[in-house]
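Morning!

This is the sequence you dropped in the shared folder:
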Amino acid sequence: MDVTIEKLVDLLNIDLELEYSAAIQYINHSAVMTGAAYGDIIKELKIHANEEIQHAMILADQIDYFGGSPSVKVGKILTSRNNEEMLQQDLDGEEDAIKRYKLRIEQAEQLKEFALAQQLRNILATEQEHAMDLKQALGR
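The structure's back. Tokens below.
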């Protein structure tokens, strides 16, 4: 798992693009999701959108700090008109983010970039909370 700081910056840029797309996807899903039973999760999705934007800002700052150029590309955005499908799309994205951030933390620690690892831990904790919210909304 040898990684250089340059490679880590490239990987963080991919994470950044996926944070952008997660925020947009949450905004879309919270707008089109319907039904009284989904009122609480709709509010939660709006909070998630803001938290994903915060993650993007943290990543952009870290990328810049390490001499990279923060990406302005946006990752893939999934849409649906089915509430359950939207929630599953969001959960799949969170589970992917959790895997990626666990790996990024290991990579940052290998490079002895402990402050970066701590920032990534904070992001990871929020992503895990998002996954828990979504699993609960899906009845799991």
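Headline: The chain has four helices and no strands.

More detail when I'm at my desk.
O.
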